[in-house]
Design brief:
Layout lengths: L5 E2 L5 E2 L44 E3 L2 E3 L1 E5 L4 E5 L4 E8 L5 E3 L7 H4 L10 E2 L5 E2 L3 E4 L2 E4 L8 E2 L12 E6 L2 E8 L10 E10 L3 E10 L3 E2 L3 E2 L17 E4 L1 E4 L13 E2 L11 E2 L9 H6 L3 E6 L7 E7 L6 E6 L3 E5 L23 E5 L14 E2 L3 E12 L1
Parallel strand pairs: 2-30
Antiparallel strand pairs: 1-30, 3-4, 5-6, 6-7, 7-8, 9-19, 10-13, 11-12, 14-15, 15-16, 16-17, 17-30, 18-29, 20-23, 20-25, 21-22, 21-24, 24-27, 25-26, 26-30, 27-28
């Protein structure tokens, strides 16, 4: 399957994008990565993990009402807010059967309006990850997009999907559907684009995200779910001891601005080889130019599967909780971010700060800067086409 965009008559599905920081703005400096990894945290076994109070999410942003929607299955529970269509909480059982909140986030809508909270859990788009030099050329016309990351565009700039209040409809106890119209010119992108995201509890142990989108003008389109996770529990300390497997033979090398350079290269003999389960922090401090540029891991892996097929491509396990999360996606790539820009200034739902490398993101996506790289898999959505994609987070213990 060479092209990810398909005619309306066909079916497919989605989630995914590139990561930067969750702390201040997208212009965070990679010097933050030199901080000491904080591994000394209070015991989280005493924390009463539970879904947030929906009343704390009642508010008005940009003239639209915000709310919290809960999903409950046999084994897992989730909380989604229509502000940014974001994951707020995700409760799953640990090795002892205790429900543990593995999604990082905040306890009320006002916290999500503060500086630095933009990328905790939202859908980012219309083009997730980075666009180099905040511009691209399409059909002979150059478009300037909003700069918010060292002269580049990150997650479509400061007014992307993550900053919008979506229209929401609770379908049933396990399903919520959210819709947003991104108007022509928003963030510098052409076309009126309508996106529908459906979160659902799939079976007993999975959170599924399905996306669908249409446009009235050709436009770059590459949304992603930007959840931050800690499988030992929100606020429980470092994720360096989580064990990670990424089924990918290649990854994208980047420049200092984390923009991909050239074609993806082999992971052989590098700290980017996670084809066998390996602790996240086992090689993160090795002397390596790519790790220096990202302050650790903040790169795009090219997955070993057929694009469009919903396959398991990632597995990561919490070292303390025993919780295993598998990521399945129809996307061709995955951005793994190891929490390099957390500074200890973000206090989460349970009153604990998020320290350096205290969380991770796994963002299913097309390659960063694809609008400027004609050899990368296509990301141009055209009128008459429907974009569909699925990503699923499955849990075991």
């Amino acid at each position: 399957m060479k092209n990810f965009i398909i005619p309306v008559a066909l079916l497919t599905v989605l989630s995914g994008a590139g990561c930067q920081t969750s702390t201040k703005s997208g212009d965070a400096d990679t010097d933050t990565a030199s901080q000491t990894d904080s591994t000394t945290m209070s015991d989280t076994t005493a924390i009463d993990y539970k879904l947030p109070d929906p009343k704390a999410f009642e508010g008005t942003i940009n003239g639209k009402k915000t709310a919290l929607y809960t999903l409950k299955g046999a084994n897992i529970q989730a909380a989604i807010t229509n502000y940014g269509a974001r994951i707020v909480s995700l409760l799953v059982p640990d090795k002892n059967g205790k429900l543990t909140d593995v999604a990082m986030g905040f306890s009320g809508i006002k916290d999500y309006e503060k500086d630095g909270s933009d990328f905790f859990g939202p859908i980012v788009g219309r083009f997730g990850n980075r666009i180099g030099k905040a511009q691209f050329t399409l059909d002979g016309k150059t478009y300037k997009t909003a700069q918010n990351n060292n002269g580049n565009t990150l997650h479509s700039g400061p007014t992307g999907f993550h900053k919008q209040v979506w229209d929401a409809k609770q379908i049933d106890d396990k399903t919520v559907q959210l819709t947003y119209l991104s108007k022509d010119g928003e963030g510098g992108f052409p076309g009126n684009v309508t996106t529908t995201v459906t979160y659902s509890i799939d079976g007993d142990n999975a959170l599924k995200i399905e996306y669908k989108a249409t446009t009235d003008k050709p436009t770059p389109y590459n949304p992603t779910s930007h959840g931050f996770f800690n499988l030992n529990g929100d606020g429980s300390g470092t994720v360096n001891n989580h064990v990670l497997m990424i089924d990918a033979d290649k990854y994208s090398q980047v420049d200092k601005g984390l923009i991909p350079q050239g074609e993806p290269v082999s992971v052989d003999g590098t700290p980017f080889d996670f084809r066998k389960p390996t602790a996240v922090g086992a090689r993160v401090d090795e002397k390596n130019e790519q790790l220096t540029f990202g302050g650790g891991y903040d790169h795009n892996w090219v997955l070993n599967h057929k694009m469009g097929s919903l396959d398991k491509v990632v597995e990561i396990t919490g070292d303390k909780s025993g919780i295993k999360m598998s990521v399945l996606t129809t996307e061709p790539a995955m951005q793994f971010y190891g929490g390099n820009f957390f500074t200890g200034t973000d206090k989460g739902k349970y009153g604990r700060v998020t320290n350096f490398r205290g969380g991770f993101a796994l963002e299913a996506q097309h390659y960063p800067d694809s609008p400027n790289k004609p050899t990368y898999p296509n990301t141009i959505l055209k009128p008459g086409q429907t974009y569909k994609q699925t990503t699923e987070y499955r849990f075991e213990k």
